[in-house]
Amino acid sequence: MVKKIAILPGDGIGREVVEGAVEILKTIGHYYRHEFDFQYGLIGGEAIDQCGTPLPDETLELCKQSDAVLLGAVGGPKWDQNPAHLRPEKGLLNIRKQLDLFANLRPIQAHPTLQDTSPFKGEHLEGVDFLIVRELTGGLYFGKPSERTNQNGEEAVVDTLFYKRKDIERILETAFELARKRRKKVTSVDKANVLESSKLWREVAEEVAYRYPDVELEHMLVDNAAMQIIHKPNQFDVIVTENMFGDILSDEAAMLSGSLGMLPSASLSANGLHLYEPVHGSAPDIAGQGLANPIAMILSAAMMLRYSFHLMEEAGAIEKAVKHVLESGKRTKDLTNHPNQYVPTKQMIEEIKEAL
Amino acid sequence: MVKKIAILPGDGIGREVVEGAVEILKTIGHYYRHEFDFQYGLIGGEAIDQCGTPLPDETLELCKQSDAVLLGAVGGPKWDQNPAHLRPEKGLLNIRKQLDLFANLRPIQAHPTLQDTSPFKGEHLEGVDFLIVRELTGGLYFGKPSERTNQNGEEAVVDTLFYKRKDIERILETAFELARKRRKKVTSVDKANVLESSKLWREVAEEVAYRYPDVELEHMLVDNAAMQIIHKPNQFDVIVTENMFGDILSDEAAMLSGSLGMLPSASLSANGLHLYEPVHGSAPDIAGQGLANPIAMILSAAMMLRYSFHLMEEAGAIEKAVKHVLESGKRTKDLTNHPNQYVPTKQMIEEIKEAL
Ligand SMILES: CC(C)[C@H](C(=O)O)[C@@H](O)C(=O)O
Ligand SMILES: CC(C)[C@H](C(=O)O)[C@@H](O)C(=O)O
């Protein structure tokens, strides 16, 4: 059966890395005899320029008629001064909300082969393999009011951290389900000594844990978590947390895997239409120069094969190919300290294709 | 002239480390001929047990009649199930609010002598020396509403991130003033691609920067900052950010200095009454066992000498003594990997006293 995949390259290096994922998927399709139908849509700055909105209706429609969505990255200085509703990031936030992509999965693994450019000592990274499950459609990102206001004539501003109990519940359930298939430990990160939302979060976590007696639950305050991720990263299996905490902690944790250019992500909805994107952004500073690392995007495509299409073997093949290429010493610029010993984006894609 | 110092030991290891600071200050007073008058007050769990409130009026009164406040730490499992207003942390939040301690200074330095227990490669920590300026009386910590609610019959919860323009302005001014005395670079951390409060923050940062043409201003998104603190920590001079971001980033950055047990902090008000506390908490797991590292508290006392009493030489003497003791190989338990080669809290205090 044909799998329909919506491709949203977005801005900056988004296009460059998306092309890598498409090529790798074509190769997979060829070897394993799957038919992928790629349909392109606009999002972000590109969509603002061409349609006057960061998430055109046609794009949303295209996604809804697809079996999965691959997204590159959005944003760039060109649109930074735009009003909020005309900023590329709004396209990303809107698609997350519109497709109800509430569970953002960010797997963190240390790659021993990348040890030379890591800030960490080698032994410190042994056994690092955890999954951050970030709530993606609530919290400070979407709460209202979010606006300038005034208090007794003084200019002020407000943002709102809002969660419904059932939104907390479903993200925690997702985390427990995923932990069941891993090492059966969930670390729920909150700030329950200060925030009311965290107190409810903790309460719900306890309730959900009750239904998963085979999975261990631990609570950790977000400040401590930011420290523990560096201090003892191999203590974690599944970390689950709200939107903003997850944003911060996952970028921090990215350093354990060597580069943001290595980190894939999957954003899952309840209805089975999922979106896959690299954790990195559009990197306008290196866009168009062939310097981007396509691995995060390619590994995101592997996650798509696994989570959307249950093609476990195919997903594993991509991951193995990436590993093989890294072991052979090939590096994009973000992965090396040597000013001239790196391969351009296209060549990295070729290498992975060949390794397949 | 006699300097009146309010001493609030609090809970857990708070008492143990506060005694260290008092001893060191007595020694300084003796050598440099200053008179310090120490008056003790209750805060946190201890205050809940004895007075039924985490911040008794007498404690607040005592602080207001003092020239500076030294605080140990608050909190412990005994009070974890209490309702919000009877939790030790509330005492800490209240004293910050009541004394208007809006600027929390957290200096981060890497100590080459602690390299063996650091997760980082040695060369990575070279030149790491920055100051986090955290807004301490606003944001999600104090915004209202902060409560359970319901939306169309569904249980929900809300917290509020609120700032007045002038509160953003004064913390940024503090950061620029401090940067002027350092390497003249301010990194303002926000999430301006999502939060309205961050957009105002960025606007105000630009305005304030205009008045400090000798200081360089750079903006950084909080997720990127969480990464950059690990990736290239020596790029920073002064980091300024709102309350919650500062909480998370400063605990993360603590790892650069080896242990949370090393990190002092100063919380400054506009009226000259400042509070000094270690960044670490009450560590109930090791309380009463003589295992606590008193250095963060002792360095907080040094910050007091510097910021409240302008005793630069005396502050420097304490910092030098601490450095000397660390160089001589003495370690508290948090600073060593060797299970039996550590000194108890009291001995560490003695060593620093002798080094003075
Ligand atoms: C671009 C931005 C809005 C986004 C976020 O904060 O969610 C990004 O940082 C991410 O983590 O996907
Ligand atoms: C104890 C807690 C309320 C406090 C905070 O979050 O401010 C602590 O983590 C700190 O950083 O001083």
Account of the protein in words:
Chains A, B: InterPro entries: IsoCit/isopropylmalate_DH_CS (IPR019818), IsoPropMal-DH-like_dom (IPR024084), Isopropylmalate_DH (IPR004429). The structure is a homodimer of 356-residue chains. The first copy, chain A, has 356 residues and is of the alpha/beta class. The first copy, chain A, folds into two domains: 1-105 and 262-356, Isopropylmalate Dehydrogenase (3-Layer(aba) Sandwich); 119-257, 3-Layer(aba) Sandwich (Isopropylmalate Dehydrogenase). Chain A is built from eleven helices and twelve strands. The longest helix of chain A has 20 residues, at 13-32. Chain A starts with a strand and ends with a helix. The model of chain A has no long low-confidence stretch (mean pLDDT 96). Strand 7 (154-164) of chain A pairs antiparallel with strand 7 of chain B, so a sheet runs across the interface. The structure holds 3-isopropylmalic acid (2 copies).
